[in-house]
Design brief:
The protein is α/β, with parallel strands linked by helices. It contains 18 helices and eight strands. Strands 1, 2, 3, 4, 5, 6, 7 and 8 form an eight-stranded mixed β-sheet that branches. The longest helix is centred in the last third of the chain and has 20 residues.
């Protein structure tokens, strides 16, 4: 069986995601197996997942995926490089994935994505020196990396690949494959029509929620138009129940009330808080909130934008805030150095059951079928990753109104 793996957040799952899954089968055959490595309670940009990982896994299985795994939180809410490396290592460790797919804004530049990855994989060498020189001259890391790629490749057009968020991840997936074991890849279009990106969808949902309880019919009409039925139904069920849905606008301010933000010395030790960010953040959250300036942003968004610099872009600040809330210190960076320590299964369908059977025989890491399996992990790094997964899920549950839910009670999804 041809088996293709891909990494996703599905935050939320929209029609573009469903189209990607169909396209994989159009390219590889209708009997191809599709394995998804899914972010858990938090996503790569440091924001919470809108819906529970089990709900998102169930939607993916109903819309074309066969087997869904969870990407450990230590990688899921990390830099693009660590996110991609963790995902690729997870997929390779299954022993059943024969090809990896990813979405990109530049599907027609597959060969250039691979070339950029090969050059960027040399970061400790010449490329790294050029990047450091750029930063020393006052450039931010992203701009310095673009300039270094253009200079070292002799092809200025390659730098443009690093200006699109999904293509940046595509490059990182290819880099990870160069390090961990090459597999053929598929570069897929995003299929995001105007107004249907996941970011815009989350914004529309928050806009409706921020008005308070009332008539959600306009939101239902909007979601029904751009989301597959299982995804629209799951969101509306959570909206009407008043729990099980967690927008960043709710979660962000709550994170700033975590213990680390009341002790400056402790905050300075947290992952991502170096370079003066801890001091600026500590001062800002004790000052008057930034003025509205006529925009429709929340105070939390304005705080992030106020703190953002070339050295600390908004996404990096969000990840640093989340890391501090979870108690992840800079000294804990070794947590991800050896790659994922286990494979956590969230759900499967009939074809996925066969994949799972093969995977349990071929996997190079322990296969965890439920959270109680974490207790059997012998590797200290894997045990720490598992503890972080449990902590991250408990934090998400609490703020999503599901505090009574225990990860140890979660059942594997079996979709027929």
């Amino acid at each position: 069986m041809e088996t293709c793996g891909l990494t996703a957040e599905y935050n939320p799952f929209h029609k573009g995601h469903a189209r990607q899954l169909r396209m994989i089968r159009e390219l590889l055959g209708q009997d191809a197996g599709i394995l998804v490595c899914l972010s858990g309670p938090f996503c790569q940009r440091g924001v919470p997942a809108l819906l529970d990982k089990g709900v998102r896994a169930g939607i993916a299985l109903r819309e074309g995926a066969d087997l869904v795994l969870e990407l450990p939180a230590a990688f899921a809410a990390s830099s693009a490089e660590r996110f991609a490396q963790g995902a690729v290592d997870s997929l390779l460790a299954t022993g059943v994935v024969r090809r990896i797919a990813y979405g990109t804004e530049d599907p027609g530049r597959h060969s250039q994505i691979k070339r950029a990855a090969a050059i960027l994989a040399d970061e400790p060498g010449t490329l790294g020196r050029v990047i450091r020189d750029g930063i020393a001259s006052g450039m931010g890391f992203a701009a310095a990396r673009e300039a270094a790629l253009a200079q070292c490749s002799g092809d200025p057009s390659l730098a443009g690949l690093l200006r699109n968020s999904n293509t940046i991840l595509a490059v990182e997936y290819e880099k990870a494959l160069l390090r961990s074991g090459p597999l053929p890849t598929l570069a897929l279009p995003l299929f995001d029509k105007a107004g249907t990106s996941a970011t815009l969808i989350r914004g529309r949902i928050w806009h409706a929620l921020s008005k308070g309880p009332g008539d959600f019919h306009p939101l239902l009409v909007y979601l029904a138009r751009i989301l597959p039925p299982p995804s629209a139904a799951a969101i509306m069920e959570a909206v009407t129940a008043g729990r099980g849905l967690l927008p960043e606008e709710v979660m962000g301010p709550a994170l700033l009330r975590s213990p680390a933000f009341f002790d400056r010395e402790k905050l300075e030790k947290m992952e991502g808080m170096q370079g003066g960010l801890a001091g600026r953040l500590f001062k800002s959250i004790r000052s008057d909130p930034p003025s509205a300036s006529g925009d429709d942003k929340t105070p939390y968004e304005r705080l992030i934008n106020q703190l953002a610099t070339r050295a600390h872009p908004a996404t990096r600040i969000r990840r640093a805030i989340l890391a501090a809330a979870l108690g992840i210190e800079a000294a804990d960076r070794a947590l991800t150095s050896d790659g994922p320590g286990y494979i956590r299964v969230l759900g499967f369908n009939r074809r996925g059951r066969r994949l799972l059977s093969f995977m349990r025989k071929e996997a190079r890491l322990p296969v965890i079928m439920n959270a109680s399996g974490f207790r059997q992990l012998k590797d200290p790094s894997a045990a720490k990753q598992a503890a972080l997964d449990l902590q991250a899920q408990a934090l998400w549950n609490y703020h999503a109104g599901l505090a009574c839910h225990s990860e140890f009670e979660r059942q594997i999804l079996m979709v027929r």
